[in-house]
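Re: beginner question about structure tokens

> Can someone show what the tokenized structure looks like for a real chain? I only ever see the sequence side.

Sure, here's an example I had lying around. Input first:
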Amino acid sequence: LFHGNRSQETEEDKKRKEERLQAYKEKKAKKPGVIAKSSLLLDVKPWDDETDMKEIESLVRSIEADGLLWGASKLIPLAYGIKKLQIGCVIEDDKISTDFLEEEITKFEDHVQSMDIAAFNKI
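And the corresponding structure tokens:
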């Protein structure tokens, strides 16, 4: 009634199983992983009311990097006639850090006093 060799895999069964496993691994390796992104809203503050805000915006937008995409922007009144630039961007988390953005934006020290993150959302 009971055949002792039934519970043992034959060489052919093992080979087929390994081939299926290999095919599955290859298929999975080709599938791109989900790219983690974040949506940021940055506040860029000038030194005073005489700072050219259009110039600040074009300087900020001149920052180009793989994984960085600039979005819409607007000027928001602060005080004493001073406006800040609020600009949106989408970043790929693995490629761009908020430290990188702050470093790059504050490099324009003749125009930019500071940069803050007004909003940070994972997409």
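Each token stands for a local structural state, so reading them left to right follows the chain. DSSP finds three helices and four strands in the chain.
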